[in-house]
Design a protein that fits this description.
The complex is a heterodimer of chains A (238) and B (168).
Chain A: H1 2-52, E1 71-73, E2 78-84, H2 89-107, E3 111-117, H3 129-142, H4 146-155, H5 167-176, H6 182-190, H7 194-206, E4 211-212, E5 214-217, E6 220-222, H8 226-236
Parallel strand pairs in A: 2-3
Antiparallel strand pairs in A: 1-3, 2-5, 5-6
Helix pairs in contact in A: 3-4, 3-5, 3-7, 5-6
Chain B: H1 2-39, H2 42-51, H3 57-80, H4 84-107, E1 123-124, H5 131-150, H6 158-167
Helix pairs in contact in B: 1-3, 1-5, 2-3, 4-5
Classes of the chains: A alpha+beta (238), B mainly alpha (168).
Chain lengths: 238, 168
C-alpha cells in the first residue's frame, strides 16, 4: 500500500510543481506583454508627435532678428516683449488697457515692441482659433499692417468654447484695416504661417512663459497693468 | 459580538475582489480620460511637462508626447484586468512622480497649471494655481493603485481567467 501511495503522492507533487511552473510562466509572459504594450504606446506617441510637427517654419516679414519668435513694432532702446493669444480674454483686456500707453511709448521711440502671437489655447476652440488667428496676423505682417490687424483681432475676439472666427471672418477683418490684397486672403486660407506660430509658441514655453498675457521689459517679467508697463520702461530707459 | 466578527471575517474575502474591481475600473477611467484629454494636443502636453522646469525642453517634448499614449495603454490594461499588479505598480510610480512634480513646482513658487487633464500648463490670467487639490486628488488615485498592488486579484479580470485552471 505504502509504495502505491508514495507513487501517487510523488506524481501529485510533480504535477503540482508543473502547474505552478506553468502559472509562473504565464504570469511572466503577461508581464512581458504588458510592459511591451506600455513601451510601444510611448514610442507611438513620440512618432505621432514627430510626424505632426510641421517642417515649414518660414517666418513672416517683420520678424524679430535672431530667433524669429515675434513681430517687431517700433524702434526704441527698451525692448518690450508681449506674449499674447488671440482667444485669451485677459489678453484682450490687457491690450485695451495698454493700447494708448504702448502707442505713446512707440511714438516717442522709447520702446521696441516685440509681439509674440502664441497659440497656447488651441483646445479652447473647436477649430484651433489661436493658431489660425496668429497665422493670419503673420499674413498681416506680410501685408504691412500687423499692429492694425492685431488691434482688430482683439476688437473682434470670439468667445472661448466655440468655433472661433472662420477664415472668411479673419479675411474680412483684414479688409477693414486695409488688407485687401488677394495675397492676404490666400495666406490666411493656406495657413501659411502655422509652422511659424508653432515655433513662436515653443520659444515662449522655452522662456518659461506659462500664461498669457506675459510682458517682459528688457527680459524681466512685469505686472499686467499699464502703470507697471510705463514705470518699468521709464526705469529701464538709458 | 463573536458572530459579528466572524461574519466580518467571512465578508472580507468575498468583498475584497469586488472592491478591487471597483478600484481598477475607477483608475482605468482616470487614465483613459487623462490620456484622451492630452492626446489631441501633444505639443501642449510637451509644454505642460516643460512648465515644471525640471528637464530640458527637448526632453519635455518627448515625455509630453509619449505620456498620453502610455496613460491610455495603462487605462486599457486596468480596464481589462490584464497584468493588474504591474499596471497598478506603474500607475503608482507615475502618480508619485506627478505628486513630486506638483510639490516641487509649489515649493519653487512656480505659477502653473498641473496639465493633469490636458492643457499646456498655462494658467489663465488671474487664475491662481490649485496645487493642494491637485495633490489630494492624486493621493486618492495613489490609494487605489496601492490597493491593487497589494490585492491584485479582482473580479471580471483577464488575470483571473488566466489563472483559473490552476485555481481548481
Amino acid at each position: 500500500m505504502s509504495k502505491r501511495a508514495d507513487q501517487k503522492q510523488a506524481s501529485r507533487v510533480v504535477s503540482d510543481q508543473l502547474a505552478r511552473e506553468r502559472l509562473r510562466q504565464r504570469g511572466l509572459w503577461t508581464a512581458v506583454i504588458a510592459v511591451s504594450a506600455l513601451v510601444l504606446a510611448g514610442l507611438i506617441g513620440w512618432a505621432v508627435y514627430a510626424g505632426q510637427s510641421s517642417g515649414n517654419r518660414a517666418a513672416p516679414p517683420g520678424v524679430a532678428t535672431g530667433d524669429d519668435s515675434g513681430i517687431v513694432i517700433g524702434d526704441g532702446p527698451v525692448t518690450v516683449d508681449l506674449y499674447a493669444d488671440f482667444i485669451c480674454p485677459a489678453c484682450q483686456a490687457y491690450e485695451a488697457a495698454t493700447r494708448s500707453t504702448l502707442d505713446q511709448l512707440l511714438a516717442a521711440k522709447k520702446i521696441t515692441l516685440v509681439f509674440h502671437p502664441v497659440a497656447f489655447l488651441d483646445r479652447t476652440t473647436s477649430t484651433k482659433y489661436s493658431t489660425r488667428a496668429a497665422s493670419a496676423a503673420a499674413c498681416a505682417s506680410k501685408g504691412g499692417r500687423f499692429s492694425e490687424y492685431v488691434n482688430a483681432l482683439f476688437d473682434n475676439q470670439p468667445p472661448e468654447g466655440g468655433a472661433g472666427l472662420s477664415d472668411d471672418d479673419l479675411i474680412r477683418i483684414g479688409g477693414e484695416v486695409g488688407l485687401v490684397d488677394p495675397d492676404f486672403a490666400q495666406c490666411v486660407r493656406d495657413g501659411e504661417y502655422r509652422g511659424w506660430v508653432e515655433h513662436v509658441t515653443e520659444t515662449a514655453s522655452e522662456r518659461k512663459v506659462t500664461g498669457t498675457p506675459t510682458i517682459h521689459v528688457n527680459g524681466e517679467e512685469i505686472g499686467r497693468t499699464a502703470e507697471a508697463l510705463n514705470d518699468s520702461v521709464v526705469a529701464a530707459a538709458p | 459580538m463573536g458572530v459579528t466578527v466572524s461574519t466580518r471575517v467571512q465578508r472580507w474575502p468575498i468583498a475584497r475582489p469586488w472592491i478591487g474591481t471597483g478600484a481598477r475600473l475607477v483608475l482605468a477611467c482616470v487614465w483613459l480620460y487623462a490620456g484622451a484629454s492630452k492626446v489631441t494636443d501633444l505639443a501642449g502636453s510637451g509644454r505642460a511637462v516643460n512648465a515644471y522646469q525640471v528637464m530640458p525642453y527637448d526632453l519635455a517634448k518627448v515625455i509630453g508626447a509619449a505620456l498620453p499614449f502610455v496613460e491610455i495603454a495603462l487605462g486599457f490594461l486596468l480596464l481589462a484586468g490584464l497584468a493588474t499588479r504591474l499596471a497598478a505598480a506603474v500607475s503608482a510610480v507615475l502618480l508619485v512622480v506627478f505628486i513630486a512634480g506638483i510639490v516641487a513646482a509649489w515649493a519653487r513658487g512656480l505659477s502653473i497649471d498641473c496639465g493633469c487633464f490636458g492643457g499646456g500648463g498655462e494658467l489663465a490670467a488671474g487664475q491662481s494655481p490649485s496645487y493642494l487639490p491637485e495633490i489630494q486628488r492624486d493621493l486618492g488615485f495613489l490609494t487605489l493603485a496601492g490597493f491593487l498592488v497589494v490585492f491584485p486579484r479582482t473580479r471580471l479580470a483577464i488575470d483571473s481567467w488566466l489563472n483559473e485552471p490552476e485555481e481548481r
